[in-house]
User: Fold this.
Amino acid sequence: MNFSIKVLTQPDGGEGQPKPWTSECLGFTFTNSVERPQIRLHWKTVKRMKERVRELTGRSSGRSVKRVVTDLGAFLRGWWNYFGVIQSRNRLARLDVWIHRRLRALIWKQWKRARTRIRELMARGISKAFAVPVGASRKGPWRMSQVKWVVFAVPGRYFESLGLIIPWTSTV
Assistant:
């Protein structure tokens, strides 16, 4: 066997030498601070995690919201047990809001008909004056998942009551 070692002859930051914040190792990278670098998630890691969340919260899977929340919670716990050592959490800033929106879109899709949507909105405290136009809307599930009245009817607390814990936002 012939092993060879490549010696970098250029000074730090030369052409062939990658910067620590541009390289990836096991899903981690570093911030580009020279004085105080921190461990953070590589952008590909976040992309892969979002792909997996999309698979788990697919709107055509035919599973109950409780089952989806259970599976999603198990995935997020395992993912966070591995990646929880990060020091810079800026790439996770709005991910919890995005996950809640995915789940709201799933619920909206499961409510199927306008009559069901109006009835569910009213049962969750939305007045008839707002529930009828929102429930009869022809917009898609993703668009409706950010409408104010749908967010009021299905808040993040609802998913917490089903058992969803997003580890990087919990205070425990």
User: Anything to note?
Assistant: The first strand starts at residue 28 and ends at 30.
